[in-house]
Amino acid sequence: MTTLWLAWRNLMRHRLRAVLMLFSVSIAFVLYGTLFGLNNLLGSGDVAGGRDLIVHHRANILQTLPAHYRDSVAQVPGIESIAAVSIIGGYVGERSNKVPTLMVDPAPYLAQNGEGIVLPAAQRADFLATRDAVIVDARTAQENRWSVGDRVVITSEISPHVDGGFDWPFRIAGIYTAAKPEDAITGAFGRIDYFNAAAAVGRDRVHWFAARTRDAAANERIVETVDARFANSEAETRTEPAAAMARAFLTQVVDFTLVIRLVVGAAFATILMIVGNTVALGVRQRRREFGVMRALGFGSRQVAAIVVAESLIVALFGALLGLTLSSMLLALMSAGITGTAPTLSSLPLGVLASGLGIAALFGTATALLPTYRAARISPAEAFSRS
Amino acid sequence: MTELTGTPLPPLIKLEGIVKAYRKGGQTVSIFDGLDLSFQESEFVAIMGPSGSGKTTLLNLLGGIDRIDGGEISFQGTPISGQSDGWLTRWRARHVGFIFQFYNLMPYISAAKNVELPLLLTGLSARERRHRVELALDLVGLSDRSRHRPGELSGGQQQRVAIARAIVTDPELILADEPTGDLDRATADGMLDLLHEISAAMGKTVIMVTHDPRAAERASRVLHLDKGLLVRSPELVR
Questions:
Q1: Chain B residue closest to A291 (CA)?
Q2: Which of B101, B213, B120, B218 is nearest to B168 (CA)?
Q3: Distance of residue A363 Cα from the nearest chain B Cα, in angstroms
Q4: Closest to B108 (Cβ–Cβ): which among A10, A297, A378?
Q5: What is the C-alpha separation between B210 and B220, in angstroms, rounded?
Q6: pLDDT tens by residue, A157-196
Q7: Which residue of B has its CA nearest to A13?
Q8: Is A252 exposed, middle or buried (0-12, 13-18, 19+ CB in 10 A)?
């Protein structure tokens, strides 16, 4: 029999209360694990993490850059290839049938995405040769019953066509797959020269440039050089690792990390008060029991240790439950993005370790006031007649 | 009480010139004002008196739970008044066993675990603790109920578990607060037999606060308190 054992047995005497507290705590950890896990998956922003960079408008990724920046960026020493990219968004038929479409420089873009876009040689050649050609991923093609050679219309949500309206006619030149499921890219790719010829507005403007460097170790210098080159121009740039692109999308609206911190912080603060109050109520209801322990010779620290142990048990079990659920949610989200079956991808280790650290802090914090009260209970409470 | 040589034995616990008062409603209420009292080893003493006479306060002072305002309390010749809370806590764990009117067992653990509770403070091994718990429960006749929780035991059985908990650390002093107050006559008699045996056969000093004259008759000495004063001098009943 130990302090931990006593704490556990005491928690189990009010099982419903214990389970409800556990779920309250786990909700905060589901939020924590999912949001920080997602933040992690969106890219850590490590410049030397890979050879792919994106150069976009300093403000956000939906602001456009002049297309002529392409040549200027390409001249920066260490750049191997560069491809212009413009978003036209898009759906087919119903608005809910999304077919996200990017207009790109075909040759360099295909070269940079060899793993995510695998095409038969003939289809590849057709895409490289035909201005209104489009390539789509196999799942999108299957869902829309498209075959190579079909003529399709993708309706843009942001770019009007020179013929009026937002419909963009294409001919399907190829249907691509990915080398590995985790490299899968969903959507369609058209050609930037078609965009520049047919767009009613925004010609010769691009949303970003996808650049590949020769050596990731030189990325830091390249980033500085590129951004310095366009400093104080009409469109200043921000160059980032390609892995940070998803984050850049979100940052166009808000500071994603700040929002996560605020949401998770609010959740923890609320649940801290709920659990702290419940633990304090438990101490009030057990004044006589703690008084008896004090009379038997338990010191105030030993009584306090039981309360702290109870809080820590709730916090750690709640954290484990919450982090497990968030791991499953992340796996489902990841599957949704890549279009593959869900796999139990584990939570990033850093998020898991921080989560357990937060649980320990949370458990201690919720126990602070109840522990103070428990430690002050007099052994005379044992003789109380009430 | 004297040895064969005629030399008086030192008291187990001695109170000299005890002064104790409480603040109540902005006024000071005096409980004891110069109380002198001593208890010998192996004595079974009953303390009687009306409500508010100071019985429970006396028990709290003897157990190092409450503090005196003046005078001195010594245990085996060592002053316990004026010691720190930590010292008194350790002293209680080593030398004092408590029995309460409402048993005060932990409802969420078994009888055996309740009895083991004070042993957690002794540093004994789990095996030694188990052995002592078995002995204590055997002594109170509850070996077969060791796995039962308090809610599964009768009032008399619960009080026996409480007695086992009070003696399991082998303390010299047992303080009992109305130990038969919540029991029927027959069960109360059995409990008093047990307390008498603990005092006479095991050499423990048992000090029992009671309202029940029949319970007091079983003690070797009865003290009557009224408004903080001993109204009848120590008197050998049996």
A1: B104
A2: B120
A3: 23
A4: A10
A5: 14
A6: 889 999 889 999 999 999 999 887 767 788 899 999 999 9
A7: B108
A8: middle
Contact A379 B108 (CB under 8 A): no
Taking the CA of residue A37 as centre, how many other CA atoms within 13 Å lie in the half-sphere pointing to its CB?
A: 27
Q: Cβ separation of A296 and B121 shorter than 8 Å? A: yes
Q: Which pair of tokens denotes residue A48?
A: 């030397």
Q: How far apart are the first and last CA of chain B?
A: 14
**CB atoms B121 and A298 under 8 Å:** yes
B153–chain A nearest CA distance, Å: 17
Residue of B nearest to A297 (CA): B93
CB of B151 within 8 Å of a chain A CB? The answer is no
B143–A contact, CB cutoff 8 A: no
Write down the H helix ranges in A66-207.
Answer: 69-74, 106-112, 121-129, 138-144, 192-198
ipTM attached to this prediction: 0.86
B198-217 residues touching A, CB cutoff 8 A: none
| A279 vs A365: CA distance, rounded Å | 11
Spatial separation of the C-alpha atoms in residues B32 and B59, rounded to whole Å: 13
Q: pLDDT grade, residue A252 (50/70/90)?
A: low
pTM equals 0.66
User: Hey, are the CB atoms on A1 and B120 less than 8 Å from each other?
Assistant: yes
- Helices marked H in chain B: 55-62, 85-95, 111-116, 126-139, 155-167, 185-200, 213-216
> Alpha helices of A82-191 — where are they, by DSSP H?
106-112, 121-129, 138-144
Looking at the complex, report in whole angstroms how far the Cα of residue B189 sits from the nearest Cα belonging to chain A.
22
What confidence score (pLDDT) does residue A246 get? 61
- Tell me how crowded residue A61 is: count the other CB atoms within 10 A of its CB: 22
Share of chain A above pLDDT 70, in %: 88
Structure tokens at A207: 């949303």
